[in-house]
Amino acid sequence: MLNVKGVKDTRQVQSIALQSRLKIPLLFGLDVIHGYKTVFPIPLAEAASWDMELLEQSAHIAAKEAAAAGIHWTFAPMVDIARDPRWGRIMEGAGEDTYLGSLAARARVKGFQGTLGSTDAVLACAKHFAGYGAATAGRDYYAVDMSNQMLWETYLPPFKAAVDAGVATFMNSFNTLNGIPATGNVYLQRDILKGKWGFKGFTVSDWGSIGEMVTHGYAENDTIAALRAITAGSDMDMESRAYLKTLGTLVKQKKVSMALVDDAVKRILYLKYKLGLFDDPYKFSDEKREKQVLNDTSHKLIARFCAERSIVLLKNERNTLPIQSTVKTIALIGPLIDARADLDGSWAVQPVDTAAIVTFVQGLKNRYGNHVKFLTAKGCDVTGASMAGFDEAVNIAKQADLVLMAIGESGSMSGEAKSRSDIHVPGVQEQLFAKVKATGKPVVAVIMAGRPLILDSIADKADAILYAWWLGSESGNAIASVLSGNYNPAGKLPVSIPRNVGQLPFTYAQLNTGRPVMEDQNTTYKSAYIDVANSPQYAFGYGLSYTTFAYSDLKLSRSFMSATDTLKVSFTLTNTGDYAGEEIAQLYIRDRVASVARPIKELKGFIKKKLERGESETLTFAITKESLSFYNSQLNWVVEPGEFDIMIGSASDKILLRDKIFVK
Ligand code: BGC
Asked: Which of 5, 374, 465, 600 is most buried by its number of CB atoms within 10 A?
């Protein structure tokens, strides 16, 4: 069953199942994507924390609340790599990078599943298998065409990481992969997932994706679609009802073997057994526990903690932030200043308790009380062309020492089926920003969105920019905590923010090409555009702090290694600024010459470290075979001898230390 929740309802439905001949208990599944009652930041935002313990903890709280409300199974984590922010579902994953995405997949699976069988764990589901994030031109459900090289190297590793972390279930994706719908794809499910990877759990189709094989033009009717899906390895049919209607006949006709059905059933029964449902079908149906867990106020504190750590400071001219004590009047402007449900973003479990969401204005008032005077004006709507509110906004800006603008897209503009061809800040918000900025007052743009938005003149003119995504229940408090300096921001972008739509899809891990644009910036007959730079507006891995960090003393334990060794790379990180703060130091590697051309850099490690003012510490990365391997043209995972660049920096475009190693 899906979309039945709460102890009362799940218990009632379970009791019906238990009147059936074999009394097999039902499994209740739900999209618990970023929280059940307590809403955590959207997954893309949380990935900006680069804090895997945090991701695990937030998934754990979500699981605990869901399990207390009768849920056994979440359709999460989504581990699709996404490099095109036109795709609305980019908000559900961990962004553009395979290494970061694989760690996030592992952390979330561990968080949801904890110890399976305990009453604070649910079955996790790695979705959508596979390639869904590469939908052509970012249009949801659209075709995916990619080389096997790209599939194995970029899109499959987070799924493999989920398998290695013990994920219980998988979900197919809606798309065709090189012409074959994923739901009927033998290569993906039989050969890779259940074959090579030895996955023992079960695979569920996506909503109606078995039936959609007919619409794709891949099966004549539901019977053939069911035949293709079960043969490919889809064990459970979500919402097509094709198995229900046709599998019996297919078995009688000997088109589907009983062994195949038994295998699918066994995988599902085993997980019901593992959860303990055969011992006690009502194990997750305790009203007292439901009440207690769903009212546990510590969950809000953890949600706030996560939200603070998900915020990325993109710009901070003349130390506009944190807000100084000399600031006495603040103008809060923008269509999202009082937003509530929007702050949860897509995939919050319905119905949302909007009263429990802390708005932007409330958060600031909670933090400053009567110490600061707040003036508020929306100025305009998120979409639409009306500028009728501009004068009021300009008027309050003139009376203020500082302006904080809450702008972006609305919560329903990203998520499933929310692809956008134009990912600028919508409506007349950019014009509103320009008018407010023209008052000469310092203006901080707080961007709320479920994807990277193109910021254009806001990027150039804002005094400071905070990327606040959708941060969930505690949004306002978390944003105020960062603006005030109570928490020093440390998030780094898990996905590049492009300059314009024409650059998409985009990743920092590009190939060099035969005609790279070198530092001389001469772009004639180079792999470049004539109307925009190759670089993004803000690069993967980028994010500022209120303090500054220096990187020095790169040391290699050796400069030669063999494919079986481990080599240590250490360096000194120093907090050179005025505040205690956390830095996320990043290790990138480039394989200079290989049998398949390699990207100019690939993330292979990172360390998040808190340092007090003036404090220094030596940090060490380990370079292993894994860090140097890639899939060759035979799809073997190999290390090839030769020269590798070792790069350490504060962002993919801020490499501060570099050296070379040689692999024998
Ligand atoms: C989505 C899945 C989701 C399912 C069940 C589908 O439309 O693609 O991600 O888990 O619905 O709600």
From this structure: 465
Beta strands in 298-355 (DSSP E): 312-316, 329-333
Choosing from 31, 84, 206, 463, the catalytic residue is 206
- What per-residue confidence (pLDDT) applies to 182? 98
521 pLDDT higher than 90: no
- Outline which parts of the chain fall under CATH 3.40.50.1700: 294-502
Query: How many other CB atoms sit within 10 Å of the CB of residue 398?
Result: 14
> From ligand 1's centre to the CA of 171, what distance in Å?
9
Residue 219 has pLDDT above 90, yes or no: yes
Tokens of 286: 């305790």
**Confidence class for position 519, pLDDT limits 50, 70, 90:** confident
Alpha-carbon distance values, 379 to 332, 365, 388, 486 (Å):
10, 20, 8, 28
Q: Report the nearest atom of ligand 1 relative to the CA of 174.
A: 8
Rounded to the nearest whole angstrom, what is the distance from the C-alpha of residue 206 to the centroid of ligand 1?
6
Q: Please say if the pLDDT value at position 661 is more than 90.
A: yes
Per 3-state DSSP, the chain is made up of helix, strand and coil in percentages (nearest 5) of 35, 20, 45
What is the signed CA dihedral for 591, 597, 602, 604, rounded to 10 degrees? Answer: -50
pLDDT cut 70: percent of the chain above it: 100
The model carries a pTM of 0.98
127 close to ligand 1 (CB < 6 Angstrom): yes
For residue 610 the two structure tokens come to 């808190």
- CATH 2.60.40.10 domain span(s) along the chain: 549-663
Architecture of domain 294-502: 3-Layer(aba) Sandwich (3.40)
Q: How far apart are CA 129 and CA 183, in angstroms?
A: 8
Residue nearest to atom 10 of ligand 1 (CA): 75
Ligand 1 contacts CB of residue 418 (under 6 A): no
Distance of CA 475 to the CA centre of its chain: 17
In this predicted structure, the answer to whether residue 232 has a pLDDT above a threshold of 90 is yes
Calpha distance 98→117 (Å, rounded): 31
CA distances from 587 to 79, 521, 590, 593 (A): 22, 26, 10, 19
The per-residue pLDDT for 564 is 83
Give the CATH fold of the 549-663 domain.
Immunoglobulin-like (2.60.40)
591 is catalytic: no
pLDDT in tens, 598-614: 999 999 999 999 999 99
- In our burial notation (b when 16+ CB lie closer than 10 A, e otherwise), range 65-75 reads bbbbbbbbbbb
Q: pLDDT for 57-80, tens place per residue? A: 999 999 999 999 999 999 999 999
Tokens 């570099």 belong to: 658
- Ligand 1 and 409: CB distance under 6 A: no
